[in-house]
Design brief:
Elements lengths: L1 H18 L4 E8 L21 H6 L9 E10 L6 H16 L5 E5 L5 H11 L6 E4 L12 H13 L8 E5 L2 E4 L4 E2 L8 E2 L7 E4 L2 E4 L24 E5 L7 H8 L4 E6 L7 H12 L3 E6 L14 H4 L2 E2 L5 H11 L6 H10 L1
Parallel strand pairs: 1-2, 1-3, 3-4, 4-5, 11-12, 12-13, 13-14
Antiparallel strand pairs: 5-6, 6-9, 7-8, 9-10
Helix pairs in contact: 4-9, 6-7
Length: 349
């Protein structure tokens, strides 16, 4: 009888210990301002990606009370130097973490310049519920009132929260939580640099508490439509900017270079000049996929609006920015060159 009681008590103790186990969070560091080092704490100049991930973790010791933290240095670049190869490396490593059950959540530290692009790319290629949260900072680690430690603490809090599962890749910045598809950088220097102009943030993280107020209705969460591995060859897709009296010469050049796709950062509702229209006709006739996006901060590009997309052979980006439309077109072309299928991707993902 005593043995049974002891076994029972041991089971209860083990169960309680297991229930109190802290979530395991792996930080994948890529560089950026959050790891930046400046010569002066009160001046803007700095070098991105100088501080290792271990020092970033060490700057917020209180986070150890909410999670078991480990870190890996994936790269040490300013995000203006972010590359497809680093994206591929991140995707492969995250999929490995999931397959081996190495973590309960992942945080990626990243420069802000292309943070939204990395987030959306990963959202399209990571097919699991594990929280993946990207963050960074607008001030280097050595600056007065550096925002990196708080942003990193918040991102870890978001990644450790069970409510973050199944929401796709998230961006946590300045106490707001954003959907990777909708978020964009809107300020060159301010600490509240990110917004989701069309939809607003999904929620917020404040004082160690995570609250969500909405969810994305797009199909990427938990069901990534595309796959990236070591053998994946990503198509060549370029962006051409439209403005008053813009020359179509770059479009002609890209046709000669036989790129796989072109995104036009059009004016207004994805519009462009007659000169651009003539050049785009040559591109689509050469079997180059062309997507109409807009340089405007908000709003959708409407299919067959002022432009006859059916006649021209173009697709529209919906409300994706040119830089994100490039990512979806690039990944879409790994599966299909059919115009109707490509357009369906833009309306679904």
């Amino acid at each position: 009888m005593k043995k049974l009681v002891l076994v029972f008590l041991l089971c209860i103790a083990t169960s309680m210990a297991f229930g109190q186990q802290k979530p395991r969070i792996i930080i994948l560091a890529t560089g950026g301002t959050i790891a930046g080092e400046g010569k002066s704490s009160d001046r803007a100049g700095y070098t991105a990606g100088k501080i290792p991930v271990s020092d970033l973790i060490g700057s917020i010791p209180s986070v150890n009370a909410i999670a078991d933290i480990s870190g890996e240095q994936i790269s040490s670049v300013g995000s203006q130097d972010m590359s497809l190869e680093i994206w591929r490396k991140l995707a492969i490593r995250i999929n490995e973490i999931v397959s081996k059950n190495e973590a309960d959540g992942i945080v990626i530290t990243h420069g802000t310049d292309t943070q939204e692009e990395t987030a959306y790319f990963l959202d399209l290629v990571l097919p699991h519920e594990l929280p993946v949260v990207i963050t960074g900072s607008m001030r280097p680690a050595t600056a007065i009132s550096a925002d990196g430690p708080k942003n990193l603490f918040d991102a870890i809090t978001v990644a450790a929260d069970p409510k973050s599962k199944g929401r796709g890749v998230l961006v946590s910045f300045n106490e707001s939580i954003f959907d990777s598809r909708e978020v964009t950088k809107t300020s060159t220097t301010k600490v509240n640099a990110f917004r989701s102009p069309d939809s607003g943030p999904l929620g917020e993280v404040y004082d160690g508490r995570v609250e969500y107020y909405k969810s994305s209705v797009r199909e990427t969460a938990n069901a990534a439509p595309f796959e990236v591995n070591k053998k994946t060859k990503l198509p060549k897709v370029e962006i051409v900017y439209m403005y008053a009296d813009a020359s179509p010469d770059y479009i002609d050049y890209l046709v000669k270079q036989k790129v796989n796709g072109i995104v036009i950062a059009g004016v207004g509702n994805g519009n462009f000049s007659k000169a651009f229209t003539d050049a785009i006709k040559k591109a689509t006739k050469a079997n180059i996929a062309v997507c109409r996006a807009s340089r405007c901060l908000e709003g959708r590009v409407v299919l067959d609006g002022e432009t006859n997309d059916n006649e021209l052979g173009t697709v529209v980006s919906d409300n994706l920015s040119p830089q994100k439309a490039r990512i979806l077109l690039m990944l879409g072309l790994t599966k299909s060159k059919n115009k109707k299928e490509l357009q369906d991707y833009f309306f679904r993902f």
